[in-house]
Amino acid sequence: MTAEPDWLLWAREIQATAQTGLAFCKDPYDIERYQALRGLAARILAAHTAMPAARIEALFATEQGYATPKVDVRGAVFDPEGRILLVREVQDHGRWTMPGGWADVNQTPAACVLREVTEESGYVARIVKLAAVWDRARQGHPPSPFSIVKLYFVCTLAGGAPSTSLETSGTGWFAETDLPTDLSRGRTLPHQLARMFTHWRQPELPTDFE
Predict the structure, then answer these.
(1) Average model confidence (pLDDT) for the chain?
(2) Do 101 and 161 have their domain in common?
(3) How high is the pLDDT of residue 161?
(4) Residue 11 falls within a domain, yes or no?
(5) Domain total for the chain?
(6) Taking a C-beta distance cutoff of 8 angstroms, is the pair 111, 100 a contact?
(7) 84, 104, 142, 151: which has the fewest Cβ within 10 Å?
(8) Does 1 reside within a domain?
(9) Residues 51 and 151 in one domain
C-alpha cells in the first residue's frame, strides 16, 4: 500500500487536536489558539491540494466535539452465482463501488449497511458476517482530511430488484474474473474486492482488522 504523506498525517492530527481543544477549553485565549491551529491545518492541506484554505477551514469548523474517526460501511453482496454487487457512483463520474456510505446516528452499522444497499441498488441483502475493519488511510485510498474507519460486511442477496438513486446511476453483478477497472477508488479498491471474494468462499475466516 502507498503510505500517506507526512504533511497529511500532521495536518489531520493538528485538526483533531484543535477540534478537541475547542470542545473543552473555556479560556478565550486558548480558544483563539485552537482556532489558529485549525487554520494552520487548513493551510497545510491547501498548500498540497487544489482546495482553498478558507473552504477547508469551513469544513473543519463543522466538526465539533471530541475528534474521533468517521465510520464508513460497505456491503459486499453476493448472488447465488457468487457474483458481487457493484453500483455506479454519481459523484465519481459513474465509477463502480460496493454500495455503502457513512454510518448514521441511532442506527447500528449492520442496519446502516443494509439500508445503504437497498437505497443505492434496489436489492435487499442479508448479512453473513463482518469481514473487515480497516483504517482507510492504510488501504491505499486517495488522501482524506479526516480519519476514517471502514467496515465491510459480506452479505447474501435476499430479494429486491435493480434501481438507481440520487447517488447511483446503475447496478451490476460481477464475477471475480470480470471485475470493472474503473472503480471509485475513494470508496472501493481492487484488493478489497479480492478479499471480499475470499471471505465469501471461506465464511469461517475471522474478521480482518488492523
Answers:
(1) 95
(2) yes
(3) 97
(4) yes
(5) 2
(6) no
(7) 142
(8) no
(9) no
Concatenating the DSSP letter of every residue in 1-52 gives -PPPPHHHHHHHHHHHHHHHHHHH---HHHHHHHHHHHHHHHHHHHHHSSS-
Examine the domain organization and report whether 154 and 179 are in the same domain: yes
pLDDT at 8: 92
- Domain residue limits at 18: 6-61
Q: What is the spatial distance between Cα 108 and Cα 147, in angstroms, rounded to a whole number?
A: 20
Q: Please give the pLDDT value at position 107.
A: 95
The residue type found at 81 is E
Do residues 149 and 92 share a domain? yes
pTM of the predicted structure, to 2 decimals:
0.84
**38-76 pLDDT tens trace:** 999 999 999 999 889 999 999 899 999 999 999 999 999
Does residue 186 lie in a domain region? yes
pLDDT-flagged residues of the chain (< 70): 1-2
Cβ neighbours around 13 below 10 Å, total? 13
Question: Distance between CA 142 and CA 186 in Å, rounded?
Answer: 6
- Specify which residues 127 forms β-bridges with: 155
What pLDDT does 110 receive? Answer: 98
Whether residues 198 and 120 fall in one domain: yes
Which neighbouring-strand residues pair with 70?
Answer: 148
Residues 57, 38: contact at Cβ < 8 Å?
yes
Predicted local distance difference test score (pLDDT) of residue 1: 59
Between the CA of residue 164 and those of 38, 117, 167, what are the distances in Å?
A: 39, 11, 8
- Measured CA distances, 210 to 42, 103, 198, 206 (Å): 28, 19, 18, 13
Of 104, 108, 139, residue with least CA distance to 209 = 139
